[in-house]
């Protein structure tokens, strides 16, 4: 009986040692993360805001974590191409994806998106935040955003608002503006930002929803005038331009963001390491200065805050899509 007890103890000790040996490499691997180049999948083409900001950050990530961070462009409607590429990867943090407020729109706009970001992916942090601008023709009588609202209230159905394609952030921001202010206006969609600018110059439309970056040259040349921005705080590159709420449109706020996510099931220590790197990069003066030049601001969120923000935006845009009667695809 005593021999059996000793044998069981020896076996248990041996098993514990083996288990410890099995666990140790995994723990070390997590502590040493990353152990190879990290891929950042961008669901947009090269040269866009998400692409530029992520490439700026990728170089800083390399300096902090000691591995290359390689930006790959996988453009496609609803981010499907990039999402499918991520789903092929291992949940070890070596493959990341850029998610945006556009992703929250896509979850409601596409009936069969093909992936569930909230179930299959794990949030790390936001990196870049940006807003839209309310633009008018400089020769118009609109001096403030409330002038536009007043005109629409006094002339139902006469205000023409221009945006790019239906379901875009710009387009839904216009729909949301109409809903918040209770005005009767026409939202006219165009293929590209230059098309919208041409229509504004011709006087076909009264108000445009577009990013200050896209209309930067138009502002400099005097072809377009910005009355306000849509964010929660003033655009750092446009300190004299009020937000919509500051301009008198209470309850209206739209902010775009780009964030990094990875596969669900990625070890928490890896996500923590990536989050800490993002926080460090976002607080770098050179990054803040460069982002400001791009009409964006660097601001991280915790993974928990990121998940909450995603759900809040998803619910908001789902309601806007439903109220506007926009057909899902």
TrEMBL record:
CDD domains: PBP2_Bug_TTT. Keywords: Signal. Residues 1-29 form the signal peptide. The keyword Signal applies. SUPFAM superfamilies: Periplasmic binding protein-like II. Pfam families: TctC. Belongs to the UPF0065 (bug) family. This is Tripartite tricarboxylate transporter substrate binding protein. It comes from Psychromarinibacter sediminicola.
């Amino acid at each position: 009986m005593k021999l059996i007890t000793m044998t069981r103890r020896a076996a248990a000790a041996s098993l514990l040692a083996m288990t410890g040996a099995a666990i140790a490499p995994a723990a070390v691997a997590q502590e040493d993360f990353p152990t190879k180049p990290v891929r950042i999948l961008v669901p947009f083409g090269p040269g866009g805001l998400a692409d530029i900001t992520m490439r700026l950050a990728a170089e800083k990530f390399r300096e902090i974590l000691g591995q290359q961070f390689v930006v790959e462009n996988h453009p496609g409607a609803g981010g499907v191409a990039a999402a499918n590429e991520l789903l092929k990867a291992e949940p070890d943090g070596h493959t990341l994806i850029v998610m945006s407020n556009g992703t929250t729109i896509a979850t409601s706009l596409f009936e069969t998106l093909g992936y569930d970001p909230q179930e299959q992916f794990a949030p790390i942090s936001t990196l870049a935040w940006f807003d839209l601008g309310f633009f008018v023709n400089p020769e118009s009588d609109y001096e403030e955003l409330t002038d536009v609202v007043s005109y629409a209230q006094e002339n139902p159905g006469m205000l023409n608002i221009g945006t790019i394609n239906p379901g875009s952030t710009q387009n839904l921001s216009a729909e949301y503006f109409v809903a918040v202010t209770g005005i009767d206006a026409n939202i006219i969609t165009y293929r590209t930002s230059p098309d919208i600018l041409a229509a504004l110059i011709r006087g076909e439309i009264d108000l445009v929803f577009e990013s200050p970056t896209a209309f930067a040259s138009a502002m400099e040349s005097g072809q377009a005038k910005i009355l306000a921005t849509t964010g929660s705080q003033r655009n750092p590159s446009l300190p004299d331009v009020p937000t919509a709420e500051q301009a008198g449109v209470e309850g209206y706020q739209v902010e775009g963001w780009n964030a990094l996510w990875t596969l669900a099931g990625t070890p928490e220590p890896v996500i923590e390491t990536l989050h800490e790197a993002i926080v460090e990069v976002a607080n770098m003066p050179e990054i803040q200065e460069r982002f400001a030049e791009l009409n964006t601001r660097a601001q991280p969120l915790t993974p928990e805050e990121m998940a909450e923000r995603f759900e809040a935006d998803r619910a908001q845009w789902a309601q806007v899509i439903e109220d506007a009667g926009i057909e899902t695809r």
